[in-house]
Design a protein that fits this description.
four-stranded mixed β-sheet, 391 residues, alpha+beta, single chain, five-stranded antiparallel β-sheet
């Protein structure tokens, strides 16, 4: 097994994330220009030790908690939202690997405890998965694989029909076995490199697969045999959106700080007076600050439920998903208030507020934050109406 030189605490992790954020501010446009994260950024993530935050101790990880992921992702994303997106997903995917069979974990971590993992859960309609001796063969295209450029492995999700039953499996695939198609040309979250994957007759052994439903519904997985901490009893649907919401919230906080300190704090009116002396700007600032604080409080209140150390029932998980989606919605509202009161200068390509505005809106469009969908589920449950259990 691997050992870290020194395990660090939640407090130390947050301080390291603040250092990363300061470094990211030194190269604000590089990820946008490349349309993926520069190698130096990923190396800084690895060197900080933070990518091991949720990795089991027996593999050299710090085995911290979801509050650590959320709060470090918030800090990193204050400096750059796309970098924060890739950072938070590295932590999420390492945590997910801990639920796979032990042999699959060994394939990744035995020789490289700092391995970087991506996911892709959007197969094309013509994707095929066939059962073969010892495992499966996969062909087709899978989309929106954020960070695939800097990752060593990818977890690919797809439905599989076996013996008349359909189930969703995760397949662990080395990057060398697939082809990355560069299609990520977007207006927001440009630096995430969320490209397309092409697989052609790729063999995945059975031990590098995991069924989603037992983990997601009952909190049962192959990895729990050896990874026994409460961290590895948490269901995926209870926390996956936290990864992305933390980024959106961190970006909103970063935008707020720029708005407060530079736009309102230093700008002058046409008459030469300080913008900070305008009553309506003071009130607007107070409202946005209160909204951001409320988002932060709801996120952390939700994490208290996540970390109770027990399997959450379906209504509880739907409530969490509503909380996350509503938080993302409020982040976009706060960003709108910031951007639309920052004047024409905020539209300049060199101004960080326009980048935060684009990134926050793009991030909040993720399917994890579809409030209409999850709100309908919650409303039916709250009113005692029949509802189909959905992930």
């Amino acid at each position: 097994m691997n050992e870290v030189l020194k395990k660090f605490s939640y407090e130390e992790a947050v301080e390291r994330a603040k250092e990363l954020s300061a470094s990211l501010r030194m190269r604000p446009n590089l990820g946008e220009e490349l349309r993926h994260q520069p190698p130096e950024t990923i190396q800084e993530f690895i060197s900080s030790g933070l990518v091991r935050s949720l990795v089991p101790s027996r593999w050299g990880g710090h085995e911290l908690n979801w509050k650590t992921l959320a709060d470090t992702a918030i800090e990193v994303s204050k400096g750059d939202a796309s970098a924060g997106w890739c950072y938070s997903l590295l932590l999420l995917h390492n945590w997910m690997l801990a639920f796979f069979p032990n042999r699959a974990q060994a394939d990744v971590w035995q020789n490289n405890p700092d391995a970087c993992l991506a996911t892709s859960i959007n197969p094309s309609p013509d994707a095929t998965i066939s059962r073969v001796n010892g495992g499966y063969k996969l062909s087709g295209k899978w989309g929106f694989s954020s960070g695939i450029n800097h990752c060593d492995w990818v977890m690919i999700s797809a439905p599989v029909s076996e013996d008349g039953d359909e189930k969703v499996l995760y397949f662990l695939v080395p990057k060398k076995d697939l082809h990355v198609i560069d299609v990520w040309r977007v207006i927001g979250m440009r630096g995430t490199g969320s490209n397309l994957l092409q697989l052609t007759e790729v063999f995945v052994p059975k031990y590098r697969t995991m069924e989603l439903e037992p983990w997601n519904l009952q909190g049962v997985s192959p990895g729990m045999d050896l990874n026994t901490a409460p961290l590895y009893r948490i269901q995926l649907s209870a926390v996956m959106p936290v990864t992305l919401l933390s980024v959106i919230l961190g970006a909103t906080k970063g935008a707020y700080e720029i708005w407060r300190d530079q736009v309102i704090g230093k700008n002058k009116t046409r008459g030469g007076g300080a913008v900070a002396n305008l009553t309506h700007q003071q009130i607007r600032l107070a409202k946005v600050a209160a909204k951001i604080e409320a988002i932060d409080a709801l996120l952390h209140k939700s994490l208290e439920l996540v970390e109770l150390g027990r399997v959450l029932d379906y209504p509880e998980r739907v409530r969490l998903r509503c909380n996350y989606a509503y938080c993302a919605e409020m982040c976009t509202e706060a960003m709108e208030a910031i951007y639309t009161s920052s004047g024409a200068a905020a539209s300049a390509e060199s101004h960080p507020l326009q980048q935060f505005w684009r990134d926050i809106h793009a991030g909040a469009q993720h399917t994890a934050f579809n409030f209409d969908w999850v709100g309908e589920l919650f409303g039916k449950l709250e009113l005692g109406l029949p509802v189909k259990v959905e992930y």
